[in-house]
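Feature request, filed as a ticket because there's no other form

It would be nice if the structure record came with a short human-readable summary line next to the tokens. Right now we just get the raw output. Example of a typical job, pasted below so the devs can see what we mean:
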Amino acid sequence: MKALKVKMKSDKNLRSNLITFGMVIGVYIIMQVLLAAGVVSSLVRGLLVPLCTYAILAVSLNLTVGILGELSLGHAGFMCIGAFTSAFFSKCMQEAIPIAALRFTIAILIGALCAGLMGLLIGIPVLRLKGDYLAIVTLAFGEIAKNVINMLYIGVDEAGLHFSTKSSLELNLSENGTVIIQGAQGITGTPNDSSFTVGIVLLLITLFVILNLIHSRDGRAIMAIRDNTIAAESIGIPITKYKLMAFSVSAAFAGMAGVLYAHNLSTLSATPKNFGYNMSIMILVFVVLGGIGNIRGSVIAAVVLTLLPELLRGLNDYRMLIYAVVLIAMMLFNWAPACIQWREKMVYRLKSRKKLTKEAE
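Raw output as currently delivered:
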């Protein structure tokens, strides 16, 4: 009986995962058809890569907030680290590695690895905190990461790399030297290697890894820690190990999203709009409105809430009002007790109808 229940749950998870992957692939195919037909506006075309970026960020943050149960506001900081380390690599290796696909693949690995490593280092002291304290410390990390990059000047010449925190003149480069990071001006001339296809592939990889992690033995241990830390520890689950695992994996995918974001811009700068507090809050909004712990909901919320303000741009007087109404409606639908009860009732009715149909057949 127990084995049957486990098998039914496994089949249900597999079916849910296939629906999520099918949804992403279906949207990609539809968009490719519309792009080929030339019916997609330049505005929407320019949003395709950011949509993939935000979806990856929302899914990865949901691993920390929804599955681990810890509130993190430093996701923009990990995104910033991934963006700048990868852009720095691509700019330095643009001539040494002329094959764009190979260079971009290595840049993705470097960005994800650096962000994941930073997540591991930050997580060791930070994950001892809980609730608001953890949120404040991770928020501070994000601001520190952004400000450190804004004060860095890095150049390269025949002698190697040169660093300064004052100005590009302090680098003392030779005549053939190049300034790569120019403080608050950031990095200019990053290869434009990002595309909608690459974004969808990275989103599918993110979904595959995180969904498999959630439904694995490690994922069940992480959720046990979320539900009751003391009970999980009492049965021998290593709390620190699994917390660091979830936090560093989440940070690594945020770094990967940063790589996609950086290689879609001609100029990358660590501004508050790109990597500041508002970006972290926006990603958290995607997670909350999509449903905490609901991976598919995070993808849908990221797409809808990114497209909506742009599609309503023609209604200048009412654009933000409609956006606010949609946010409130989604919040009520996901979290109001009456709406939750109504959804459960509708699911029960649907299952009952399916059961009756099968019996009639």
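Something like this underneath would help us a lot:
Residues 2-145+187-268 form one domain.
The two ends are 26 Å apart (CA to CA).
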